[in-house]
Amino acid sequence: MADRTELQELLESILGSNAVYFQPPPTIQLVYPCIIYKRSNINTKFANNYPYKLAKEYTITVIDKDPDSIIPDKIAALQTCVFDRYYTADNLNHNVFTIYF
Q1: Domains recognised in the chain with CATH numbers
Q2: Are 79 and 101 in contact (CB under 8 A)?
Q3: What is the pLDDT of residue 52?
Q4: Cα distance between residue 38 and residue 31, in whole Å
Q5: What is the distance between the alpha carbons of residues 59 and 33, in angstroms, rounded to a whole number?
Q6: Contact at 8 Å (CB) between 33 and 15?
Q7: Which residues is 97 bridged to in the sheet?
Q8: Which residues are CB-contacts of 53 (< 8 A; sequence separation ≥ 6)?
Q9: 3-class SS at 101?
Q10: pTM of the model
Q11: What is the reported pLDDT for 62?
Q12: Gap between the Cα atoms of 23 and 11, Å rounded
């Protein structure tokens, strides 16, 4: 099973910078475009009432000033990644995804 540092490296390579934040504190100054991600769930598969497979679920948010950014397309192309929603806040575009990693 891949660990979170591998996900961090993958997201940094897609973004082309180190503006990838895991559960950032509210005091951090974000640099745009950026990616924020957090663990949101663990999907458990059972056999004989015992867990035999665990998949960590992460929520990935791509934040960019450019509404036509290609970064969300690159995230959407990742294996086990699903687009969740889009919204704007503070004149920034937010694309939210769910991925099992």
Answers
A1: 4-100 (3.30.2000.30)
A2: no
A3: 87
A4: 18
A5: 17
A6: yes
A7: 60, 83
A8: 44, 45
A9: coil
A10: 0.90
A11: 98
A12: 14
Distance, CA of 81 to CA of 101 (rounded, Å):
9
DSSP string, 46-96: EETTEEEEEEEEEEEEEEES-TT-SHHHHHHTSTTEEEEEEEEETTEEEEE
Q: What integer best gives the mean pLDDT of the chain?
A: 95
Q: Which residue type occupies 43? A: N
d(CA 101, CA 92): 27
Cis ω on the peptide bond leading into residue 25 (within 30° of 0)?
no
* Tokens linked to 99: 């991925």
